[in-house]
Amino acid sequence: MSNKRLIIWGVDDYNVLGLFRQLGRDNEIIFMVFQGVRHCASLSKYCTKLVETPTLDDGLKYLLDNFKDETNKTVIINSNDLIAEFLDLHRDMLSRWFIVPGTSTPGLLKKMDDKATMTQFAKELGFDVPDSRECHWSSNIEDVTYPCLLKPTHQTLGHYNEFKFKICKDAKNLKRTLRFVRKESTFILQQYIPKESVALVYGCRTLNGKTHLAGVLEKDRFCDNGDGSHGVLVAEFPEYIRPDLIEKFMDKVDFYGLFSVEYLVYKGKAYFIEVNWRNDGTSHLFYQAGANLPQFWVNSSIGENIKHIPVKVASRSMFIDEIFDEENVKRGTISKEQWQKEREEATIFKYYDKDDIVPYEAVKKGKRRKLILDAIVAKNRLYLVYVLDKLGLKRK
Fold first, then answer.
1. Nearest to 29 by CA among 40, 17, 39, 14
2. Residues 197-353, CATH architecture
3. pLDDT in tens, 293-347
4. Which of helix, strand or coil describes residue 74?
5. Domain named ATP-grasp: which ranges (predicted)?
6. Per residue in 148-181, is it b (16+ CB within 10 Å) or e — as a string?
7. Is the pTM of the predicted complex or chain greater than 0.85?
8. Architecture of domain 131-192+370-391
9. Does the domain formed by 5-107 have CATH 3.40.50.20?
């Protein structure tokens, strides 16, 4: 599909980097950078046109000012939750000139992106879900069972979330946490389930209403910031994951585009975590294992040939984050010898690409700085966000 313009709207990170590597060989890509250049995806050799759109409104203005061809629509792919909700809200208007991911009901995605709403919906469809309830700074927590898990229900534009998630071991810990959160923040308070692994299903629902699933990535080791750093990709679904429920979820919401579904796996049971209504940051891992759902979404959306595009991973493949997983050796999670053995066995990598090496080298060079910042944020994020709010400093 040469000389076809695509727009990738997202943050300058490994998610967009992966999209460049899947789509950059055969498409002309415009990268709309949200929240500033960060020297990751923007360093890719496939990044030939970059437009800075610091805010969502800046992005909308750029789209409306520069694209007027109703007969040759431009496909938009996004990689950020806030952008996904924004596009969904304006999907009807933009669909005149663009192929836009989202739902058939404008604004529905913001509701479905709320973790409390999403979790309840999944439970009603038949997913296994941890015991859950909404929680605010002033909620009654007398009957909470510990340990428990606390997560923001939603990402708020202009603010940093107080944390990605927080495990509270006792009532004292939970009370202290709630004392520092914003009064307007809403959380989902869940039963704590130990994490043996995290399973992720990557998929795409095309404009004809058919859901395609590339396979499963099961992550069994994690970086200091919580990202999965080692695992296996397989085409066949384990017994504890039901693809029919995923298809049912997509049909009920009537969502179109790229997505992923995450589960926490414990003792042979997969507990629903969330749906990500945008391209997943692991999409390029599935690509390296043989599937190219982003290109499938593009071609199917504009009526081009899709028969040659694989949508399922080919076979069992081992994944490793070749830069950050080694920190597990220092933590004593794995021996140096075993890590080296698994590194040699891996064929799927997070950053490395011999044909697009500059981003990998940049991330590797900045490893130490990132580890230090991640450690500081992980330990103090709740209090840092509290201080930023008191100072009136907002996230751009």
1. 17
2. 2-Layer Sandwich (3.30)
3. 999 999 999 999 999 999 999 989 999 999 999 999 999 999 999 999 999 999 9
4. strand
5. 119-302
6. bbbbbbbebeebbbbbeebebeeeebbeebbeeb
7. yes
8. 2-Layer Sandwich (3.30)
9. yes
